[in-house]
Amino acid sequence: MRISILSLLTAFVALVLVACTENVGDLMRLNPEGPTGPLYGRSWYNSHEARPGDTVIYRPQGYIMPPSVPRYGPVYLDGLRFDKDGQFTFYTFGPADAPEAHIGRWEPMEENQDILTMTLENTELRPPFRLRVLRVENDKLVVLRLR
What we know:
This protein has 147 residues and is an alpha+beta fold.
């Protein structure tokens, strides 16, 4: 009896979680007016939250981050912005840790709209790179760095 109640409760929680998670493809769908969803037109910053492997968690500008999270290792991506017109802004630390914004373009792969290729105008700063968008919520962006 205890096992079946636990199984039902687990199944219920799983169904609720699936119903609450939006499909990334739907959030990023391209349409005649451009892409839609909370990913676009917002600046996202690396929150340095615990993450598995090459997964990076970003929070939108204005999100209250936990007190002072130490920087660790080489900072790969600090901030991102995707605009509907295909413009991409890469925020990073410049000389003396002053913030800098670098402009580029993003575009989804034809065969997989969840994978975005970013190309900065200044390719000496960073060669083109790709990210797979794993999850987009109003207050959280989860991406996987692709090699």
